[in-house]
# Entry
Amino acid sequence: MNILAIESSCDETAAAIVKDGREVLSNVVASQIDIHAKYGGVVPEVAARAHVQSIIPVVKESLSKAKINWKEIDAIAVTQGPGLVGSLIVGTETARTLSILKNKPLIAVNHLEGHIYANWIGKNQPQFPLVALLVSGGHTMLIEVEDHYKFKIIGQTRDDAAGEAFDKVAALLTLHYPGGPNISKLAEKGNENKYKFPIIDLTPEPKRNADGFLEYPEASLDFSLSGLKTAVLNVVKQSKSLSEKEKSDISASFQKTLVDTLVQNSTRAIEKSQPKSFILSGGVAANKELREKLEKMRKDLNVKFYMPDIAYCTDNAVMIGAAAYYKQKEFGFTEPKNLEPDPNLKLA
Ligand code: KG4
Ligand code: ZN
# Structure
């Protein structure tokens, strides 16, 4: 089955042709990073306009790169949400129109499902039940996945998302948007033990019961990441202008603390759920330190570990094609042709 997949939820206009959910026939991503960098972040109206300009050329390129014609396309998949409404409209309207014109079934995909299914691209086939750590610009979650499309959120951030923390700290250090890759590059030259930033653990303190024994509550799998950003802000405020060395040390110390927080709750989730495999996903999954520390955790916990190739961590349409394939396998083609975007779409 050849699926044409379209993704436009934030600031990448992307289209891809994916065969049987795993084989990448083409992968086209038109990034708007240069457009948004001068504003220090994504400007929704500007993003929507840029999507309008690129969507048709990007879809055409995905077909020509795959050397495929419309007859060989079996379905059209598109990100329905969550994301920026103006951006989502461009993708869903394009997919809807093409599906009517070319008479192809539509498959609506949740962007978060897309990130998760990036782990099925290529030769990987993670075993169920599994636990997923999803870390992106808008989300930070631990999810139990019992089988295809059986998701249960078991932990999530109560304030900032991991990618958001990277981007906000990058802004404090006057680094360019998006912050994640720039922080991790600087961190390579820095001393991660220079600053002691707090790991916020939401697990309540143990209580003494009637018999005088300490009772330990179950460890919390939720995250709180905004305090870490404030701790960085306090260090930044103490200095009039930061040297490159100081910026590197702050980046390294911040990254270490954030990664350790993610690894701590991932370890707890694996101990609690006892899954067959553990998978990493979302834009922050591109972070080298996170990948290395989770790989080490995997060895200690003896669980199978999967992570997408770097190219499929940040937003792309291949992951939408992969998620769509497994969705129609599970539920069939159920989408009406009047599909509407849902900026607040929740994980099923
Ligand atoms: O998944 P994604 O492309 O978009 C959303 O769905 O949000 O994630 C983007 C986020 C941004 O916050 C970006 O700073 C972060 O992922 N990111 C990284 C790295 N590459 C991208 N964070 C840390 N290290 C990286 N190498
Ligand atoms: Zn994303």
Notes: The radius of gyration is 21 Å. The chain has a mean pLDDT of 96. Residues 126-307 form a domain with the Nucleotidyltransferase; domain 5 fold (CATH 3.30.420.40).
